[in-house]
Amino acid sequence: MLFGRSAAQTALEETRLARLERIAQDLGISIDDLSSITIEAHYTSDLLRLRMSLLHLDQSDAAVIDPNLLESLQTSCKQCAVKGQCAADIIEDAANPRWQAYCPNAMKLCTMRAQSIEATV
Fold first, then answer.
1. Is 74 in contact with 49 (CB distance < 8 Å)?
2. Alpha-carbon distance 37 to 88, whole Å?
3. Other beta carbons less than 10 A from residue 92's beta carbon
4. Which domain holds residue 51?
C-alpha cells in the first residue's frame, strides 16, 4: 500500500489511542491534556503529578511525611535530564517500572507508596 495506511498501522494506532484513553481516564484528565504533557515535557510539575497519581499518591501525602518533601521532589524533577523519557513512559506503558531506573525521585516516591499502603493496612 503506497499511499494509504496498512491495516496493521491502523490497528496499532487504534491500540495506542485506546491505551491513551485508559491512562487519561485513570488520571482524570483529557487525552489532549495527556498528549500536551508529552509535547511539552518540560512542565515537570505535570510529570510529577502524573507519576504520583499513577502511584496513587498526591501532594498532601508528601506533606504528611515531610513538609519539605514535595519541594525536594519538584526540584529533582526540574533538574532531571530525561523528562522526555518520563513523559514517553507514562504514555506508552505507565505501569512499567522502568522509570525507577532513571528517575531521581524513584526511591522517595516508592517509599511514599509503601508508607501509604502500610497506613491503609
1. no
2. 9
3. 14
4. 7-120
Query: With bands split at pLDDT 50, 70 and 90, how would you rate the model's confidence at 39?
Result: low
pLDDT tier at 79 (50, 70, 90 boundaries)? confident
pTM listed for this prediction: 0.63
C-alpha cell at 79: 533538574
Domains identified in the chain, total number:
1
DSSP-derived 3-state class of residue 104: coil
Give CA–CA dist 121/118, Å, rounded. 5
> Residue 55 — φ and ψ, nearest 5°?
-90, 5
In a domain, 2, yes or no: no
If we measure between CA atoms, which residue out of 63, 62, 52 comes closest to residue 26? 52
- Residue range 82-109, pLDDT digits in tens: 888 888 888 888 889 999 999 999 999 9
pLDDT confidence bin for 37, thresholds 50/70/90: low
C-alpha cell at 7: 491495516
